[in-house]
Amino acid sequence: MGILDVKNVNKRFGGLQALGDVNLNVAENSVHAIIGPNGAGKSTLLNCLVGKLIPDTGSVMFDGQSVLGRKPFEINQMGISRVFQTPEIFGDLSVLENMMIPCFAKRDGAFELNAISSVGSQTDIVERAEQMLEEMNMADKRHMHAAALSRGDKRRLEIGMCLSQEPRLLLLDEPTAGMARADTNNTIDLLKQIKEERDITIAIIEHDMHVVFSLAERITVLAQGTPLVEDTPENIKGHPKVREAYLGESA
Amino acid sequence: MLGLQKKDASLLLLVFALTMLAPFILNPFPEGSGWAQFNAGYPDLMQRFVIFGIFAIGFNILFGLTGYLSFGHAAFLGVGSYSAVWMFKLLSMNVIPAIALAVITSGLFALLIGFISLRRSGIYFSILTLAFAQMSFALAYSVLTPITGGETGLQLALDDPRILDSISAAAGGNIPVPSLFGIEMRDSSEWSVGSWVFTFNNGYYFAAFIMLCSFYLSIRIFRSPFGLMLRAVKSNQQRLNYTGLNTRPYTLAAFVISGMYAGLAGGLMAAMDPLAGAERMFWTASGEVVLMTILGGVGTLIGPVLGAGMIKYMENILSKINSDILHTWFAFLPDGLEDFIVTIIYPFIGKGWHLTLGLLFMMVVIFLPGGLVEGGQKIAKLFKRGKKDDDGAKAADATTPAE
Lengths: 251, 403
Ligand SMILES: Nc1ncnc2c1ncn2[C@@H]1O[C@H](COP(=O)(O)OP(=O)(O)OP(=O)(O)O)[C@@H](O)[C@H]1O
Ligand SMILES: [Mg+2]
Known about the structure:
Chain A is of the alpha/beta class. Chain A folds into 2 domains: 2-89 and 151-248, Rossmann fold; 90-148, no CATH class. Chain A is built from 9 helices and 10 strands. Chain A has helices at 42-49, 72-78, 95-108, 123-135, 151-164, 181-197, 209-215, 233-238, 240-250, and strands spanning 4-13, 16-26, 31-35, 57-62, 65-66, 80-83, 169-173, 201-205, 218-223, 226-231. In chain A, α3 packs parallel to α5 and α4 crosses α5. Chain B is mainly alpha-helical. Residues 390-403 of chain B have low confidence and may be disordered. Chain B contains 19 helices and 6 strands. In chain B, α3 crosses α13, α4 (74-90) packs antiparallel against α5 (95-117) and α9 (202-223) crosses α10 (225-235). Chain B has one domain (6-316): ABC transporter involved in vitamin B12 uptake, BtuC (Orthogonal Bundle). Chain B is globular. Chain B has helices at residues 6-20, 22-25, 43-66, 74-90, 95-117, 122-141, 145-148, 166-171, 202-223, 225-235, 237-241, 247-272, 283-296, 303-316, 323-329, 335-345, 353-367, 371-384, 390-399; strands spanning 154-155, 179-180, 183-184, 188-193, 196-201, 275-276. Classes of the chains: A alpha/beta, B mainly alpha. Chain A binds chain B through residues 50, 71-73, 76-77, 81-82, 84, 88-94, 97, 100-102, 104-106, 108-120, 122, 125, 143-145, 161, 165, and chain B through 3-5, 220-221, 223-229, 231-232, 234-236, 238-247, 249-250, 253, 257, 395, 398-399, 401.
């Protein structure tokens, strides 16, 4: 029994079957990659995990509890953090403030009316955020507007924000999409380091096979909304069905 | 000082000094001189400056921090006024219970309207609040006449119960006036120096004191974790939701707080002049506070107060200039030229002050999206150039986006 258990999930958009009988089991403390051609339903599946979409049928269990019918913030408080396909950060706030918000969410829960004390007086939060920025190698940018960061740094910040909540499951939707080679390699190193340093389960959607094969312990191949195979990277590489549905296409 | 950073504390101190010295600052021209009509240091107008300042400060907590643009905030102003007048009628002419009730009822009313309107965002939220405010206006004007006085408005009467001050009411034959433990709000003392006359009005100083408290509270809110969350709502609500924060109670709390500020302003209006009418809830009044906030600088601390002062000054001073006055000003010019200049200026003054306001508003929105505050900052930067390197100034800007 894994930490995330998806059973018989179906999702239709009008006449389009975006997800058809998806079963997925992610083992605790593993890195699980989901790959598949454009439009395969990878993001749709992720949306069903975090409460952005509700599947038509099927069940999604996280650590033995159903996530269906819960709001995104409730699912996050259960221990699932998500990094989006295009970085979602607070562009108008400083980098440090960006980092403090998830720290507040971790400490105070979904709502806390703390309208009188100053942010600066919350020393535990400030320290935690500073330490997290240090870890992300972004401490020197703490006073910058987040909107002014480079795309790679935005992604780094978003990952850092998710990690500061110490989630049990981290979901990444194409974290290296649109990145230069160097940035991609940095991201791979960062994720490897994250995995080494803490107990965390990572589910990652990725097109870049270099990223997938350097990180994943298991791979699920999705095509037209249905999982084709699930196996270790070594076996996936040589799998004829996968070559046909996915790798063949990109070659 | 008072738990504020140095920069905020000096801003508060500046506002304190300006409000306390307002009777002097606003009356720079000697009585009887041609410029005397630009003097704004009379009680009625000074009271309006600070009361609308409170209204705009509160509005800015919602609009400036969360980005939710309410088009119905005048409803809370009206509710505050009605509540205060009822307190004068039933309980006592003391302004404290009247203002307390104004804040409480407007807060409850904001809770109800906010709960419903905040189900939507963007333009739909604005339209919902507008609809609610217009509904309140229509109700106050018609069905609710027993409570609101309908078209004539709610006024005091000689035979009102006023349970707490029945003794003093029996003494005189006049309707009593609002007071703070016996200090009458309408009383003023005057001080003449040469040909200058300075007026110190009790009501003004009381309202100014409340405005300073409101301003201080708003600084605390801006700098608090709650304020940070509200700014995050404006920046990226989706990220906030996926970061485990429930945005709804945050926006609702901001809505209720700003509704209470509006109610406080409405209550103070009634305390200065104990009557309340439905027109206070009309949509133009809601629009006015939007203009004040944008003109002064959305999301800045001092901007809304500046905007409120600017608009009230124009409304009361510019609108009083007529063509006769213009002719006396330009009398030194040759006749033809004098007429020509007066004709050109005339549409912008008197009843045409709205035109001037509209032009000013357009200029600010186009050239100074950050409002008058941005204008001030730009001027300050011009003077500072050379002293500091630009990078340092930019870094400082990023850390305190809301000045
Ligand atoms: N909200 C929606 N409404 C209608 N159709 C949708 C919606 N979201 C996704 N789809 C469709 O569902 C299919 C799966 O989309 P999805 O975004 O999950 O693909 P993906 O595997 O993430 O692709 P990519 O690699 O391009 O990100 C696509 O055909 C898409 O057009
Ligand atoms: Mg996708």
